[in-house]
Amino acid sequence: MPGAPTTQLETFANPQTERDYTIRMQIPEFTCLCPRTGQPDFATLELEYVPDRLCVELKSLKLYIWSFRERGAFHEAVTNEIAAHLHEAVRPRFLRLTARFNVRGGICTSVVAERRQSGWQPPPPVSLP
After folding, report:
1. 34 catalytic residue (yes or no)
2. Catalytic residue at 55?
3. How do the domains of the chain map onto residue ranges?
4. Residue of 20, 34, 52, 108 marked catalytic
5. Which CATH class is domain 11-116?
């Protein structure tokens, strides 16, 4: 097997520390278990971050996300846990994690967790004609 689930996130040096830029990732196969029923919950995770000194390494992110597959967790808790772990590992200027959970009991749930460095402000938006 090429890998196994892990709770470790690996990083690498940001190649452009002098400027703000956004990294966006879509993770469409997130799975955890409902802590009440044990049934699987499926979600698409959308990660956006503005790196500072470090970036998250993709294979380690995949293996980290895999580690939730057999864990019971409420949507709100797991989204904030992942955002906190990513923030701790990468220390980005800004991070937003959106978890869009599939329908369960007729309800779609989206949870958004954000973290930002103290004092960091995004550049003003650019409007093109």
Report:
1. yes
2. no
3. 11-116
4. 34
5. alpha beta
